[in-house]
Amino acid sequence: MRLGIISDTHGLLRPQVFDVFKEVDHILHAGDVGKSEILTDLETLAPVTAVYGNVDDREVRSRLPQVAEVELDGFAIVVTHGNQFGHPTPHKLHAAFPRAEIIVYGHTHMPLLELVDKTVTVVNPGAAGPARFRLAATVGIMELEAGIPPRARLVKL
How far apart, in whole angstroms, are the C-alpha atoms of residue 131 and residue 17? Predict the structure, then answer.
């Protein structure tokens, strides 16, 4: 199973996302969506599991949870924006969600791919929306296969 991982779109869905995500089976959006149309557009590619972020308005928040838990290809996955932890770090997230095998978060706009406790993959795909903090727009791709550790990479848009 191939996952597309995205966060911090802030109302902007770059056309490159459609190219990078063209063969994904599921999309995880880690919040700060910006507007519901972003989710509708992503759903044309694959099913979407999404959460709201700290800048999402009431309309987006009414559609989405703060934390989503999903099992895909036998992996327990948690998706959160992470702002509820102040400055989220892989270790804070692992402590908050000890049963998760994969944790996806956003908020910091800093792309990150880290292995915690030798078994937990933590991914922050960075920000895919408007350029901020002099950081490139990025997303993530993750490959899941039962019995094999997840394989992930960050992709500049």
Answer: 15
Instruction: Report the C-alpha gap between 109 and 126 in whole angstroms.
Output: 4
Q: Global pTM?
A: 0.96
pLDDT digits (tens, 9 = 90+) for 46-82: 999 999 999 999 999 999 999 999 999 999 999 999 9
Q: Domain total for the chain?
A: 1
Alpha-carbon gap, residue 123 to 103, rounded angstroms? 6
- Sheet strands side by side (includes 48-50): 48-50, 26-29, 2-6, 138-145, 148-156
The Cα-based distances of 56 to 10, 38, 77, 100 in angstroms read 8, 12, 22, 25
Structure tokens belonging to residue 98: 């000890």
Give the domain extent around 93.
Answer: 2-156
Residue 74 belongs to domain with CATH number: 3.60.21.10
Q: What is the DSSP letter of 8?
A: -
Indicate the SS3 state at residue 116.
Answer: strand
Q: Which pair of tokens denotes residue 107?
A: 């908020």
Tokens 């002099």, located at residue: 134
pLDDT of residue 105: 98
